Sequence to fold (688 residues):
Amino acid sequence: MYNKYMWELYCYDSDILSSGIENLPSLGPKRTAVFQDHGISTILDMIQCTPNRYLHRKSAIPIDEIIEGEVATISATICSVKRSPRIFSIELEDDSGRARAVFFNAPPYFSRTLVKGRSVLLWGLPKNERGLSVFTHPNIEPEGEDRELLIPIYPNADAFSSVKIGYRVRAKIANAASERIADLADPVPSEIILKTGLPSLSHAITQIHAPSSWDELESARQRLAFDELLVTQILFALRRREAEADKSAVPLRPGALFSAVKHALPYKLTDGQNHALAGLLQRATAGGRSMQLLSGDVGSGKTAIAMLVAAAAVDSGLQVALMVPSTLLARQHAELLDVRIGRFGVGIGLLTGSSRSESLEKAISEGKVDIVVGTQALLSKRHRFKNLGLVIIDEQHRFGVNQRLALTKKSGAHVLLMSATPIPRTSALALYGDLDLEVLHGFPSERAGFRTFIREEDARPAIWNFIERKIESGERVFIVHPRIEGGDFTSIKKGFDAVSARFPGLVSIVHGSLSDEKKESAFASFRTGETPILASTSVIEVGVDIPEATVMVVENPESFGLAQLHQLRGRIGRGGREGFCILIARSAKDSPARKRIELFASTSDGFEISEIDLEFRGEGQVFDFAQSGKNLYIFSDPLKMPDLLDLARKYSLEIVADDPELTKKKNFYLRNGIKYLCSTKNIVKLAV
Fold:
């Protein structure tokens, strides 16, 4: 089944879209069955299965650059033709060389169209025969006066060859399906389409399947991209409006506890922390339910800010839920809160899968526990809060959309999400347009920071000698591996054995397959220095705060995203001693993978690293669009379309301001589209 969707096509109540494909031209029972085997049974399916690329003479390569076994496209001139009863063969040439194409049982029209002197566009899989590139049964298209000819290439095109459905027939069928929806109303209000200058939906879909030029294709893509951005921005605007209108949310008023906790901190807040704290509290006192995202670099001090916002909530007579992605992190946060806030008589509770108890649940429901720290166990329907007024979600990108917002559906609580992955403005609009973004700048002065170095595998003995000197001076060392099993140093088990042989009795191991008890035991011995070396997978990426940790060795850093690597190295240099992050690279020095980690090593700026990671891997991978179900963006790329995103945001705000319930006739299809998204994409449902 093709993983494509167009919300526009789901907003119609149309028999046309749900009708079968068997009545489309060129489709008999055999061809229909092949389409059905590939998940294309209706007109809707046919329209949604759009080309994944287009061929054009500009996409051709010179003949002398053809590589055997790699699909190639060439634009060349026929210089000779040979035909026998079974074989039709042509030789082609361009300025760089010659190639041959061979067809068995070729149709008669080949003799009329593929003649000497004719320019053609050809694509297929070549073989090298005595120094000549030979294509057997390639696709071929005579080039006529229309030099802008674009040839749509559909997914799994080869699978349809058995029933003689080539690109021409496929395009003809898709066009016929597109024509069936020509009379359906455009789902986007006409005045918006007029102001933007974008084409109608039906025209855009036709051009996607059979573009008449590059300009028309680009215009069609812009229209479908705009639709995706518009409907998600409308959804964000509706969420924001719903929160602002929630009068059940109690404003957060900092009081005696807030002042006491702030005064008792063993450090002074930075200017960046004070500025961010003021912004968060201002929105939480302005009326309605605040929904905010605190974005700051690794080690910038987000936890201290969250703790003070929680104190303000307790001052206001409210309970606080702090949700984190792991039991280990939950326990660490609970211990910190007990030291910083519990000393003033505030009830702190830890609620994880292994720490549930009837007495704790009763205390929470009676309001005797002011701040509850937990994992996803907090989402259980069995837990009842007496007066939940603030939900804080740490490392929010590790939770799915439903998970991270489920608590807010239980009550009119303020929401504070925290992310140590710095988020560029365009990404924030695309992913968190319903939230107010607060960016935390700067770092605490007592934080020594780190430097990053790239080393080859043959440097490992020297690195171990460096580790030996560090642990002799009372410091701690992380050695991070990308996987658990394996026969080389990318495997934590292989690495643990080797490092343990070098440092007997001084190494602990922790990874995702271990029980919580074993993980906690390993961290405890590491924290105390009993085992000053910790071999780990990426489970230490978040929440581990050990001031003595100054060295991190990362095996095969190419296996990690840059944002993840930045999170990892943020575990070192958090105290008064400088940190050293050593990347043991496996990639060639001139490879793209090496260039990527060289760029990473050259900066410690999390925002810059996010931009680099986005450039190399794409926004969906960095910020995990998959947490929202299917990818919301098929035709659009918010990061690369900031102007279109701003346009969609502008019109979404106008639409919601004019018609908050989307009940006007002109917004009927937008309303239906949002209903579709809310029911199928794991997006929090709205009363629309």
